[in-house]
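In this section we walk through a basic example: taking a raw amino acid sequence and producing a predicted 3D structure, encoded as discrete structure tokens. The instruction is simple. Fold the sequence below.
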Amino acid sequence: MSAVNVMSGKGIEGSLRRAKIFQQLTLYIPAAVLALLVLAAIFAPFLAPYSPTKTALGQRLIPPFFIEGGSTAHLLGTDTLGRDILSRVIFGARVSLSVSLLVILITSTIGTVLGIIAGYLGGRTGTVLMRVTDVSLAFPAILIAILLAVVLGPSFKTVVLAISILGWAPYARLIRGEALRLREADFVAQARIIGSSPLRIMVRHIFPNIINPLIVIATLSVGLVILTEAALSYLGAGIPPTTPSWGAMVYDGRSLIDTAWWISLFPGMAIGLVVLSGNFLGDWLRDKLDPRLRQL
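The resulting token sequence is shown next.
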């Protein structure tokens, strides 16, 4: 009987150890991927072997080095204008990550402010803000982004504005729910008793307690923003063609997918890595920062 218990204990211990290793991998690998891409974006002029916009028609459609006809001078091949794919992927990280950072900063700020006001104040103010949020959520974001980008013309600023104009609504909805829960907490009631103003309560007591879910949703939004930017660039309504962008690169190779698949594959892989890394990192943060999940 004791031997069975010992074996069961060892089995449980082994399972817990494997689960811990898996959790560590879901943190370290996505964090390492995102860190490498951020470093590549920052040091792109030093890492890229060529200029991302330099054309060389005599070297057009060279395949990657590991395929017959490839060259180590262009490790990932070249596109229809002879531009180096590796250099364009490295510089494309600047565009995609910059758009993601700016959009998340703008949308999280707007959504957090409106969500806290709607949740804590409630009443007619909260109702009006939530109805506006519901209207924003009802619109297809990608369609609005495309229309705005077409009207204003393709540019970096237009893409950021187009994605941000409706991207704040999910933040507002989540933060409002947290604010509704927190406004009934004892420490908030005590702050009201001692005469703290609503603004002070929202800034000093409500906001610090919603940082955890805010970080989680911001991390999970990284992939969505990059996919939206890539979709806009793919449709020709995003970053101008002269600027290296992962979405635009996928768009450039769409008609040559049978013969020159590397033009679309490598930027597509970069998009996939960022999306997966952001989602895994967001899931890990959710498990760590949510006390209900941490107790399971």
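Looking at the output, two observations stand out. The two ends are 29 Å apart (CA to CA). The CA atoms of residues 64 and 76 lie 4 Å apart. In the next section we compare this with other chains.
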